[in-house]
Design brief:
Length: 150
């Protein structure tokens, strides 16, 4: 069933059964085109940077509802960064197999996931102290890039 409420394969089968083979062939061609269009649409509607910040704002709202947003809570959100940074270090050490007793315990994908935890945690902490975290990120990124002409 396509997202448009049509099942082209089912329709093509019905046309085959009614001996409308050309129409069935055309329907199957359309089914493939619909599948391709749906894939392109799904790709085009992946979250934009704005959507990501909207998600971060929702996460902060959820945290606010659970824990409030007093200074102590903000401090704990910032402290959480240290926890996540430690997890990245643990994953990297596990990826390299540096500890001979443990050997290789992590994959590079796991290291990447831990780095994303750091990014999200920092974004949550940032959004907890400003309503315009995207402005701060954009300005800082621009400044850093200008520094090295990137
Ligand atoms: Mg983590």
């Amino acid at each position: 069933m396509s997202m448009y409420g049509i099942d082209p394969e089912e329709t093509a089968d019905a046309l085959d059964n009614a001996a409308h083979w050309d129409a069935a062939q055309l329907m199957r061609k359309m089914a493939k085109e619909i599948t391709d269009l749906e894939a392109r649409l799904a790709k085009a509607t992946q979250p934009s940077a704005d959507d990501k910040w909207a998600t971060i704002h929702r996460l902060v709202s959820w945290l606010d509802q659970q824990n409030g947003r007093k200074q102590e809570e903000i401090g704990l959100r910032i402290l959480k960064l240290a926890e996540e940074q430690g997890e990245v270090a643990q994953a990297w050490i596990g990826y390299t197999g540096q500890n001979p007793r443990k050997g290789t315990t992590h994959t590079l994908d796991q290291v990447a996931e831990e780095l994303v935890d750091v990014i999200v945690t920092a974004a949550v902490a940032l959004t907890s102290i400003t309503d315009k975290p995207d402005v701060f990120l954009d300005a800082k990124l621009k400044k850093i890039a200008e520094r090295v002409n990137a």
